[in-house]
Design a protein that fits this description.
There is one protein chain. The protein folds into two domains: 4-64 and 89-157 and 237-314, FAD/NAD(P)-binding domain, CATH 3.50.50.60; 160-234 and 323-347, Alpha-Beta Plaits (2-Layer Sandwich), CATH 3.30.70.2450. Helix content is 33%, strand content 30%. The chain has helices spanning 11-22, 47-55, 92-100, 145-150, 210-218, 226-229, 265-284, 290-314, 324-334, 337-347; strands spanning 4-7, 27-31, 44-45, 64-72, 77-89, 106-108, 112-117, 122-126, 129-133, 135-138, 154-169, 178-181, 188-193, 197-203, 231-240, 244-245, 248-250, 256-257. Helix 1 runs parallel beside helix 3, helix 1 (11-22) runs parallel beside helix 7 and helix 7 runs antiparallel to helix 8 (290-314). The model has no long low-confidence stretch (mean pLDDT 89). This is 2-polyprenyl-6-methoxyphenol hydroxylase-like FAD-dependent oxidoreductase. Residues 3-156, 202-308 form the FAD-binding domain.
């Protein structure tokens, strides 16, 4: 019987497994998907998460550095902030493959149906059997079946919106800068990716024509292939009422959902996992309060991240045309001087 079973083999689930195995804790990972997904997902890795991953020995091969962020309107740069240390961009499937190489006992194509908890152990019920463990870590995402089976309340938080997104060949002439356009129709976000590609995201209440949104709001023409590459997502935010339930711990998106605008969700999960690993070791050694202390220490970071994500989305909400110049004037003030340095720290999660 393993000491720990991790449900979910995304970046956060495989990271906590690798960290526990490095501590000599027998850990098994079960993932319902049969292979790593290559569809566009998280790409931004902020400095605190970069430091944590490199301590594990990850090289983050091929990552692209972002050292500058620009606030723009269609005609000009309103202000800029500098990221030191830089933000890295790396497709999630590339990061996932590197993490997988650091994990033993990872089984894909093994959906977990539910978890039964007892006074001395938990039992993970699989489609084709079961396995016991002293502790279960549910890292099975926003739609966590483990969280649902435990009856844990999923509290909605401020901040939501509908967005169009595509990763395309980089022909915007923006170099290595991340850029955020403030326009009457809504915000457009763009940042560089490895392999001379670029991600484009636009807030849009209706429609699916990302190229049109970008052209109208920025003046930049995207290639015709953008339509086929565009996906639509609705951002929302939640925090689970509790993260520790008997012998089950909720981790990552299973514990908290953040808007992907600003790229904080995966990064928060990484930092949660780094803090959780030593607490799991202490819990297995008999410290009955180790896991609840971890939740108490990390929950404020989740609240701050939710507030930051809500702010990130609020700046993209369309305003009446007569108010857009006023909004841009405020943005110009925030994106210069000491305020810009404070915002740069907030955007790169150095306060979490």
């Amino acid at each position: 019987m393993p000491d720990v079973v991790v449900v979910g083999a995304g970046p956060v689930g495989t990271l906590i497994a690798a960290l526990l195995q490095r501590r000599g804790i027998e850990t098994a990972v079960y993932e319902r998907r049969t292979a790593i997904s290559t569809r566009p997902r998280a790409v931004g890795i902020h400095p605190p998460a970069v430091a944590a991953l490199r301590q594990l020995g990850l090289e983050l091969h091929g990552a692209r550095q972002i050292t500058r962020g620009e606030a723009r309107d269609r005609a000009s740069i309103l202000g800029a902030m500098h990221f030191d240390p830089p933000v890295l961009t790396l497709p999630q499937h590339t990061l996932q493959a590197e993490l997988d190489a650091h994990v033993r006992h990872l089984r894909r194509g093994a959906p977990v149906l539910t978890v039964e908890t007892g006074s001395h152990a938990a039992r993970v019920i699989l489609a084709g059997g079961s396995v016991g463990a002293r502790l279960v870590i549910a890292a099975d995402g926003v739609g966590s079946s483990i969280r649902s089976s435990l009856g844990v309340t999923w509290h909605r938080r401020p901040g939501h919106g509908r967005y169009l997104m595509a990763d395309i060949d980089d022909d915007g002439g923006l170099g290595d800068a991340a850029a955020l356009w403030f326009a009457r129709g809504g915000v457009v976000e763009s940042f560089p990716l490895p392999a001379s590609r670029r991600r484009w995201v636009a807030r849009a209440a209706t429609g699916s024509d990302l190229a049109r949104c970008v052209a109208e709001r920025t003046g930049i023409s995207l290639p015709s292939a953008t339509a086929e590459a565009t996906s639509i997502f609705v951002a929302s935010q939640h925090i689970a009422e509790r993260w520790v339930h008997d012998r089950v711990v909720l981790l990552g998106d299973a514990a908290h959902e953040l808007s992907p605008i600003g790229g904080q969700g995966m990064n928060l999960g990484i930092l949660d996992a780094v803090a959780l690993a030593p607490c799991v070791e202490r819990a297995l050694d008999g410290d009955a309060d180790a896991l609840t202390r971890w939740e108490s220490e990390r929950r404020p970071s989740a609240r701050r991240a939710v507030a930051q994500a809500a702010f990130n989305m609020s700046v993209g909400v369309p305003v009446p045309g007569t108010l857009q110049p006023v909004k841009n004037l405020l943005v110009r003030g925030l994106a210069r001087g000491p305020a810009a340095r404070m915002l740069a720290r907030a955007f790169t999660m150095q306060q979490l």
